[in-house]
Amino acid sequence: MNKKQKNRLLFWGRIAVQIIFFVFLPSLFSQAFGGVKEIVTAIGQRDVLSMSAFVTKLIVLVAVTIIFGRVFCGWACAFGALGDWIYAISQQIQKKCKKRLPGIPEKADYILTKAKYGVLVGILVLCYMQKGQLITNNSPWTVFSLLTARNISIGAYGIGIAFLLAILVGMAFCERFFCRFLCPMGAVFSLLPQLLIFQFKRSRENCIPNCQACKRNCPVKMKLQENPMQEGECIKCGRCVLTCPKKNISLGWERIKK
Amino acid sequence: MKNFILKTTNLLLVLSVLLAYENVAKDRKRQVLAYEKKVREAQETKYKDGTYSGAAEGFGGEIEVSVEVKDGAIDTIQIVSAENETKEYLEEAKSVTDTMIDKQTTDVDTVSGATFSSTGIINAVKVALNDAN
Fold first, then answer.
1. Which of A18, A93, A96, B104 is the most exposed place for a label (fewest CB within 10 A)?
2. What is the pTM of this model?
3. What pLDDT digit, counting tens, does each position of B103-125 carry?
4. Residues of A in Cβ contact (< 8 Å) with B3
């Protein structure tokens, strides 16, 4: 398989995997985070920690993330996939109408990526104070989980619906809007150490001066300055690999093979 | 690389805290369960079977009682000696032993008119049952 075929496989393969997870495991992200909430709630009650179904899923995703990086975010998370598709549709519409939606200035963008840690801490504090139910009742994820389970009795979740709609709008404006600015599970993942072997590495010596194609195409707007791209934001979508005109970016272990 | 070390250290810290917490929580739960078990057992069988004697101050002197516990319950209370008790008061006070057997507790009212004697009998039974707990 040559490079071009590999790249095509990467591009369509990721979309296929996203669709499969969206159809069969659309609440996985929410359940894993449910495990986090359960642990904190138990600690708040001074209760023993138990290996519930949620906690087990959390541990699995954490392990996967430590080994491979945030592949879950990039390939399996239904909410992330939703964001990808909404943004893609939004881009198409913008192209057709020849109008561009405003973007977020770089400085504000950077600060906003730190906001998800605030969201995470806020939710954990509420769970510790045994107010976790409050989160569940008003969470956009609850509404999303109900809908993807083909359950339309979302009447009682007015606030959750409002949040979800606002998020959908955000997703149309900014790629991976929720993932980068608001996702508490993503916040947890980004704090995990990631094995260097599976990180994308960039051979900067071969770069075309002022190219920046990888940076411009990155859905999570990584600075792409570190080598390997260890930043907790990388969701392993592989777009930089596909975009680079000189094929400078590859998986860590491929570099070792060279 | 520095980033990796930082995050790994952070993760190990969080895991060790959780582990330590789990140990403490497990210990605590074990203690709570043991205590609850003890409370349950205490309520089911209040007293150990056997015959116990106790003595306490009555009206005129010491009253000695013998308490028999059968099947965890107070079966009989006998006044072994009450040398200096005034006969009439003692006779009145004796009914407190029936009450204690009926109610299966020493937490009973004294007989009015024979307060000291009945208190003496009750206390003597209490002393006796101390050994039965």
1. A96
2. 0.74
3. 888 888 888 888 889 999 999 99
4. 226, 230-231
